[in-house]
């Protein structure tokens, strides 16, 4: 049995509490509906691809989870904590890599990470220790003193992942993290994210419109026009739709609006 270990002072969680739980989420910008009845749950250590074309609502979903926007209907819980009613506990458990890079290019790698640690209440020594640990996880230990400006695009994204993990979140959200990267760097980033799930038990929600970032065993949530149309791995989706590839399944779903859930 998997039991979540929570910090002292927080309400104890039930065994197997999902890292992320979204229920009946509706959201609109002004009068324009953008998300409709979105429900999903992601377990600790799961790697889940949120796959949808541009405009599907992926970034909006992330904005609601992180409470950048808050005027919505439905429920969002991180590690069992409600993002509204228990905001401090909930947000302590999320790491985010935004679509637009947000590192300070003129600071060193370790300074960027230490700054983030300070925002989460870490002292300098703890922040440095955490920074070195996280840089090791993403294979960048040898770059910790390098100014971010001197890193490649792929290395910068890995620094952002390390930063997102500084406060040991249960859930890491990555919004189109490979935009602008070459194929080798994209592949490497996908590798790193999978390893985090297996080795650290972090749940990863990876938003993308690129089907080639989905690996055969990955769970895929297909989002289109604000609705979740499918939930399953490539084999499940292709079998149920009677097609040969995930690409065809995606075209079929996005074209026809069919709904499939495991
Ligand atoms: P994705 O991340 O999947 O590309 P978004 O969440 O960015 O999708 O956008 C979903 C829909 O919401 C799109 O139709 C987009 O035009 C619209 N949208 C996004 N941001 C805003 C905003 N700030 N105001 C109004 N409409 C928005």
Taking Cα atoms only, what radius of gyration do you get, to the nearest Å? Answer: 18 Å
Largest sheet: 7 strands, mixed
State which percent range the strand residues make up: 15-25%
| Chemical compounds bound to the protein | adenosine-5'-diphosphate
Give the CA-CA distance, first to last residue: 22 Å
Neighbour order of strands in the largest sheet: 6-7-8-3-9-10-11
Please name the CATH architecture of the domain at 1-39 and 47-93 and 211-262: 3-Layer(aba) Sandwich
What is the count of helical runs?
8
Structural class: alpha/beta
On the 0-100 scale, what is the average pLDDT? 90
Residue stretches low in confidence (pLDDT < 50, at least 5 long) are 1-9
Per CATH, the superfamily of the domain at 1-39 and 47-93 and 211-262 is P-loop containing nucleotide triphosphate hydrolases
**Strand elements, count:** 11
CATH topology tier name of the domain at 1-39 and 47-93 and 211-262: Rossmann fold
Helix share of residues? 25-40%
Give the C-level CATH assignment of the domain at 1-39 and 47-93 and 211-262. Alpha Beta
Question: Would you kindly provide a written description of the structure presented here, covering whatever features stand out?
Answer:
33% of the residues lie in helices and 25% in strands. It has 262 residues and is an alpha/beta fold. The longest helix is centred in the C-terminal third of the chain and has 18 residues, at 183-200. It starts with 19 loop residues before the first strand and ends with a strand. It has a domain at 1-39 and 47-93 and 211-262: Rossmann fold. It is built from eight helices and eleven strands. Helix 3 (109-119) crosses helix 4 (124-137). Mean pLDDT is 90; it is low at 1-9. It is globular. The strands form two sheets. The chain has a seven-stranded mixed beta sheet, with helices on both faces. Strands 2-1-4-5 form a four-stranded antiparallel beta sheet. It has helices at residues 58-65, 87-91, 109-119, 124-137, 153-164, 183-200, 234-241, 246-256, and strands at residues 20-29, 32-42, 47-51, 72-78, 81-82, 94-97, 171-175, 203-208, 219-224, 227-233, 260-261. Strand 9 (219-224) and strand 10 (227-233) form a beta hairpin. Bound molecules: adenosine-5'-diphosphate.
